Amino acid sequence: MRTAPTPQLSTERTDPHPQFTRGTPLTGLDEVPWDEIQDARGSAAAIPVLLDRIARGDAETARTALGELRQRVCRYGFVVEQATAATVPFLWELAQRPEVSCRARIIELLGSIAGARQWESTAAVYPKLLNRRENPVVWERAARRAVRARREAIERLMAEDDTEITRATTELARRLGE
User: Fold this and answer.
1) Locations of Polar residues compositional bias (predicted)?
2) In whole angstroms, how far apart are CA 46 and each of 10, 87, 130?
3) Domain edges within the chain
């Protein structure tokens, strides 16, 4: 009995961004002690799972995971948490991965973090806040520094053809004073 010939599949990559594939884990994600730091809901242990869903999920999965992540690290769009600064480098990485479906929303989240001053504003009125063992003003400042530390990506993001990404990046650059 004869069988049809099996076509030979190409072994060459056709991905224009081979360093970013759906199977590529986020750099250094397992090096953060997530279970030892806090987000808005308690332990930040769920953050790596959410970041992975954003990185590897379909559009709906990524959007849902980003919404939950936002509530954990930047509630209401202006209240950061202890885990926020540790999350920012991964947000920058995701924002630059072409296969991630919610990149503009990630950039908007980075903008919210960059503009967060809720704890500092509260401490200006209630200075005793600064005497707490876990000082949220320190978290807020660390989160803003983390956003600024990776701002060299702004130029690349501004060169994107996607108008949503360039709009969100323009706003982020404005917040950073770039």
Assistant:
1) 1-11
2) 38, 11, 28
3) 29-176
